[in-house]
Design a protein that fits this description.
Length: 446
């Protein structure tokens, strides 16, 4: 349910222009916070954004006896796991449904306490989002898992043991699960078909600073030699390449010009190539990347999402809004999540022409081709967008609706905007800084 405070009126048609800053990656920071649980001694994490996912993990860690306090510099957290303890199940339960991070507490809690309770998980509704890989991995390390009311209870009767694991799919979360568990397990763990996203590399950097021994091969194999003890870390989180790409897409769709301070070329190379093919312009310097619409018409493209180093699925939704403004037929094949194109129906209501297909369109066949999921799209453009009423469906879909509303003629009402706070720090202020004409019906103009 959304209330009046959760609605944003967007008066479209103004190009977004100016500068915003992105801080640490939403898909790294909460995991680095969990890693602090493994250390003997405090850890310092810098460049931490003020987003809901960080607050949820902070609450969960505090429930388990970790003290979390601000450090000396803005955006710094000091996490001290000296007094880790079991949390009250009812308290943990209160976090049920709020995030997908709790599952990653399993390994660290099993090492520290010998048991763990994990509530039902939340996160974006973009497909089934199963956690079978996670539990299979934990069983291979020697954990037992029992379903209890409100969640899963795990126990490690003995010290967890390193093992050989091959993931059925290079899952980001399952790879992190293995890393966070293997570093203190006895012996060597060999993980093949691992995810190798930049956020995972950064988590490996965190763990190495703590004393872990982790080697990455070029063929998606990660080898972890367990150690007996880890210390704290001092780390500056890599910046959020997904948020940066969202603002880049906003610049393109609104014919704007945005300097994204903190955006990094290295983690965005695939996005930048695609942005250039669509006709977007960018300029990279040491502090960030400027993105803009150079004028003229945009080009239709064929796009397939994939695990890193492919085109990241979280980049897809915002860029699709820009593709509604490109001349010709664009093809989008979503191969990571089976239902990440549902958000396009609201774009069609605004005047876009996007048709969904169950077949794998474009390059290669994926896991969803035979399974009846609407996971391919043909976007035909350019189409004028008109303001409309819409409800935020998920984090990236929600930001995409903001972009569409800003690019449209007339006024849109975007309901459920609070969900965007999960992963976009201070987005209302950023919109204001970029000259967007938006207001809360309750009176707060931004
Ligand atoms: C992470 O989710 C991110 N979330 C997602 O970002 C991101 O889209 C995704 O990785 C892919 O890059 C966080 O880091 C908190 P996966 P995760 O395990 O780890 C299947 C955003 O908007 N799978 O790599 O949950 C799964 O269904 C969010 O920032 C299983 O089948 O993703 C999916 O099809 C959304 N069984 C595929 O693997 C499992 O046990 C990839 O999921 C686990 C996953």
């Amino acid at each position: 349910m959304t209330g009046p405070d959760d609605v944003l009126l967007v008066h479209g048609g103004t190009p977004l222009e100016g500068e915003i800053r992105v801080r640490g990656a939403k898909n790294l920071v909460p995991k680095a916070m969990v890693a602090a649980l493994l250390g003997h001694g405090p850890s310092r994490l810098r460049n931490v954004p003020d987003i809901r996912d960080v607050r949820v993990v902070r609450g969960l860690l505090q429930l388990h006896g970790v003290t979390v306090r601000p450090g000396d510099e803005p955006g710094e957290l000091v996490l001290d796991p000296t007094y880790v303890e079991s949390a009250n199940v009812a308290d943990i339960d209160a976090h049920a449904g709020s995030s997908r991070i709790p599952i990653l507490l399993c390994g660290p809690l099993l090492h520290r306490l010998g048991h763990a309770f994990i509530p039902g998980l939340g996160g974006c509704d973009i497909g089934g989002r199963p956690i079978d890989f996670h539990f299979e991995v934990l069983r291979q390390f020697g954990a037992t898992i029992e379903k209890r009311e409100g969640g899963q209870y795990l126990e490690a009767p003995q010290r967890l043991r390193g093992c050989k694991i091959r993931l059925p799919y290079p899952s980001v979360g399952a790879t992190e699960q293995v890393l966070l568990t293997a570093v203190l397990a006895e012996g060597v763990t060999e993980l093949s078909n691992a995810a190798v996203e930049p956020e995972i590399e950064d988590l490996i950097c965190v763990l190495q600073k703590m004393g872990a021994i982790i080697a990455m091969d070029t063929d998606r194999t990660i080898r972890i030699t367990g150690v007996d003890k880890l210390g704290g870390y001092n780390h500056r989180a890599l910046s959020d390449r997904l948020e940066a790409a969202s603002w880049a897409s906003a610049a393109l769709a609104t014919k704007g010009n945005i300097y994204v301070r903190g955006a990094q070329q290295r983690s965005m190379m695939t996005f930048l190539n695609t942005y250039r093919k669509v006709g977007g312009a960018f300029e990279i310097d040491d502090e960030g990347i400027r993105f803009w619409h150079p004028g003229g018409s945009l080009n239709a493209i064929a796009l397939e999402t994939d695990v890193h180093p492919g085109f990241q699925t979280d980049w897809q939704q915002p860029l699709v809004v820009a593709l509604t403004q490109a001349a010709g037929l664009s093809i989008v094949h979503e191969t990571v999540y089976e239902s990440r194109l549902g958000f396009t129906s609201a774009l069609n209501q605004m005047g876009a022409h996007i048709q969904l297909y169950r077949e794998c369109l474009g390059g290669s066949a994926c896991r969803f081709g035979q399974r009846n999921f609407l996971h391919s799209a043909v976007v035909s453009g350019p189409t004028k967008l008109q303001g409309s009423d819409m409800v935020v469906p998920d984090l990236r879909g929600g930001f995409s609706y903001l972009i569409a509303a800003l690019a449209a003629e007339g006024t849109s009402r975007v309901h459920g905007i609070d969900l965007i706070n999960r992963g976009y720090e201070n987005f209302m202020q950023k919109l204001k800084d970029l000259g967007a004409n938006v207001e809360m019906p309750g009176g707060t103009a931004a």
